[in-house]
Amino acid sequence: MTTDRLMVLDLLVSVLAAAAWVGAGAAAAARRPRTAAALMAGALVASPARAGSVLALAGAGWWFVQEKVTIALPLLLTASVVAAVTAGPRLLAASRAASEAGRDAARSPAVVVPLLGAGYAAAAGPVQTFLLGYPAEPGSALILLAVVAGAVLLTWRAMTPRVPLLRAATAATAVAALAGGVLTFIPATTAAAATPVAAEAATPGAVALAAAEGGHDMPGHGMSAQASAPVRPVTDLRGPSAPAPGGTVRRFTLTARTATVTLSSGRKVAAWTFDGQVPGPPITAEQGDLVEVRLRNADITEGVTLHWHGYDVPSGEDGVPGLTQEAVPPGGEFVYRFVAAQTGTYWYHTHEVSDIGVRMGLYGMLVVKPRGSATTGVDLTLPVHTFAGTTVVGDHDQPVLQEVAPGTPVRLRLVDTDNTPHRFTLAGTVYRLVAVDGTDLSGPGPLSRAGLRLPAGGRYDLAFAMPSGPVVLRVDDRTEAVRLTTAADGPGNGPGTGDVTDAEDAAAAAGWPELDLTRYGTPASTPYTSRSHFDRRFTLVLDRGLALGDGLPIYAHTINGRAYPHVPTQVVAEGDLVRLTVVNRGRETHPWHLHGHRVLVLARDGRAPTGSPLWLDTFDVRPGEVWEVAFRAANPGLWMNHCHNLSHADLGMMLHLAYEGVTTPFHGGHGG
Question: pTM for the full model?
Answer without folding.
Answer: 0.90
